[in-house]
Design a protein that fits this description.
It is built from 16 helices and 27 strands. The structure holds iron/sulfur cluster (3 copies).
């Protein structure tokens, strides 16, 4: 499409037809202030802060919604524009409580920044500061109506991004209030606690409870990494102050999730209170005592080397980096030749369909068939994407043995015996996607083969890096009772491996590599302390096969080490070249 010529503040600018004035100005590096506008939300022109003067227009126009036209002449900071903008800001400041010095957002508030920019140093109009409620009912965030400027970023984020439609405005004029559902406390509403609304709020009206008042907004650092709580691999920013993690925030340019996070990824990931393992431990006379890394690794290597392959077992979390999983494969499959190699999720099927689709294919589909998966529980951001597609007109059909949180939204919910009918619906659709979970049976897979050329298939596997673990053959059968030496990489699995402690052969020598103390590490003869997800870098392959990079935000605590570092050192103790092992892993193309 050929570009058009416009003039902004006397400067010739090239713009694209269909762009708004704001988009064209931003592309040309010209700043127009905004408040209700957010780059990932559809513009609504509600706050009038972005008003600009357009030659030939009778009134000032909002730059965020007004489209450019050929030879358009625009003034973004003319005296008339500045007067109008100041007037808008004076009205906003005169209503509700904007006493910045006691606000969590002071220093990072977009309203406050605009006040400074336009020199608001006193109240021009009588103030209207009726005391409004603070809704602190959700577990992780709160809504302070006194700070709200009714910009509706939160209502739009909840509707457009999360497709949850919890928030809205009620009443009119000065009585307008933000509300949840039919005006119930947020904590009793349909809110799923994802915190997306908190992330888009320009003022201190919606804040994260955990990190409130812990640091001034301009004093924090951000490190981009990925969430490893499930197999979606959502990109996020770790917000830090003086080496301490304050909170986790959306990263709007993240490739898989585009800024969406769920409650588990945004809030609960920072709530692990289990005691950390900070040094290697070895059992002596029934008691675990500290040991040096040298001694612990030498003992681990000695026991592994002396075990016969049939009696040796490996059980691993899939929340490990691909580098660590690659080293496990080289050590246990290639070198020690044990066939007992299992993952925390037990034996799950691989990915029966190729090529698989991408999570992004959900957007734009006209029919979504959900089989043997519960994304609202297991991969919540995938459930947001499904509901978003439904808002755009997609139909949801489920095949499930028990209802899930998405079932009420389904046009049809079939029992597994009616899979054939669901397949016919896929056949008749224009752009269908099949989203399937690890519980997919062989019979279902066979029926779905009929639409393999028609639909995009998107697996929802359990475990952050299950795709790599399965590709490397670590997803086999494991009988812990049959092993006389067992190497368990528990990582930071939350309780899922603990019941394993009771199934281990009492006479077995057990080595556990983990972040936290647990019944499993109590049972262990040797404990290797591991860095957490915030303390190690590495690569992951998410559920749809996208390669993602995690970055350490913190150094490892105590003497703990990254997963790949421990296994690289163990490989060397076993006489393997860790560098060559990594190269071998790369060659496998995981
Ligand atoms: S936390 Fe999420 S679901 Fe709840 S109101 Fe905010 S955006 Fe909506
Ligand atoms: S709570 Fe924040 S985002 Fe929502 S309307 Fe008020 S100021 Fe805007
Ligand atoms: S969907 Fe999964 S990867 Fe994304 S934020 Fe939630 S737990 Fe983390």
């Amino acid at each position: 499409m050929s570009s058009i010529a416009i003039t902004i503040n006397g400067q010739k600018v090239s713009a694209q037809p269909g762009q708004t004035i704001l988009q064209a100005a931003q592309a040309a590096g010209i700043d127009i202030p905004t408040l209700c506008h957010h780059p990932v939300l559809a513009p609504i022109g509600a706050c009038r802060v972005c008003l600009v003067e357009v030659t030939g227009q009778r009134t000032l126009q909002p730059a965020c919604t007004f489209p450019v036209a050929d030879r358009m002449e625009i003034q973004t900071e003319s005296p008339k524009v500045v007067r109008a903008r100041k007037f808008v800001l004076e009205l906003l400041f005169s209503e509700r409580n904007h006493f910045c010095m006691v606000c969590e957002m002071s220093g990072g508030c977009e309203l406050q920044n605009l006040g400074y920019r336009y020199g608001l140093d006193h109240w021009v109009y009588p103030t209207y500061t009726e005391r409004l409620p603070v809704d602190a009912s959700p577990p992780h965030h709160l809504m302070d109506h006194n700070r709200c400027v009714l910009c509706r970023r939160c209502t739009r984020a909840c509707a457009e991004l999360v497709a949850n439609h919890t928030l809205d405005l009620r009443q009119r004029g000065a009585h307008t209030m933000l509300c949840a559902d039919m005006d119930v406390p947020l904590g009793d509403s349909s809110c799923v606690g994802c915190g997306t609304c908190v992330n888009v709020c320009p003022t201190g009206a919606l804040i994260d409870k955990r990190s409130a008042f812990m640091a001034r907004p301009e004093a924090v650092d951000r490190v981009g990494t990925i969430c490893t709580q499930c197999s979606i691999g959502c990109g996020l920013n770790v917000v830090m102050h003086r080496g301490h993690v304050l909170r986790l925030e959306s990263r709007w340019d993240a490739p898989v999730n585009g800024g969406l996070l769920c409650r588990r990824g945004r809030f609960e990931a920072l709530e692990d209170r289990r005691p950390r393992l900070l040094e290697p431990l070895i059992k002596e006379n029934g008691r675990s005592v500290p040991a040096s890394w040298n001694w612990a690794l030498a003992e681990a290597a000695r026991h592994l080397f002396n075990e016969v392959p049939e009696q040796l077992g490996l059980l691993t979390s899939t929340r490990l980096t691909s580098e660590a999983l690659g080293l496990l494969e080289v050590i246990f499959a290639k070198h020690l030749r044990t066939s007992q190699r299992g993952t925390a999720e037990g034996l799950t099927r691989g990915l029966p369909f190729t090529p698989c689709g991408k999570l992004a294919d959900i957007t734009g589909s006209d029919l979504i068939l959900l089989v043997a998966a519960d994304p609202a529980r297991d991969q919540p951001v995938a459930s947001f994407l499904i509901k978003r597609a439904m808002d755009q007109g997609a139909r949801l059909v489920t095949v499930e043995s028990r209802p899930t949180d998405l079932s009420p939204f389904a046009e049809a919910a079939f029992a597994p015996r009616d899979m054939g009918i669901a397949v016919e619906l896929v056949q008749a659709a224009g752009r269908p996607v099949v989203v399937y979970g690890a519980g997919l049976t062989k019979t279902d897979a066979k029926l779905l083969q009929k639409v393999e050329s028609k639909a995009r298939f998107i697996p929802l596997v359990p475990g952050a890096n299950s795709v790599t673990a399965t590709a490397l053959g670590l997803n086999n059968r494991l009988d812990p009772a049959a092993c006389s030496t067992l190497f368990i990489v528990a990582g930071e699995e939350n309780g899922t491996l603990d019941q394993m402690a009771t199934r281990i052969n009492p006479a077995a020598f057990v080595i556990v590599q983990a972040c936290y103390a647990s019944p499993l590490t109590e049972r262990a003869d040797l404990v290797l302390p591991m860095a957490t997800w915030l303390e190690r870098s590495g690569t992951f392959t998410n559920t749809d096969g996208t390669q993602l990079r995690a970055h350490a935000a913190l150094p490892p605590s105590g003497q703990s080490r990254p997963d790949w570092d421990i296994l690289g050192r163990l490989a060397e103790r076993l006489g393997l070249d860790a560098g060559a092992a990594k190269a071998e892993f790369s060659r496998c193309g995981s």
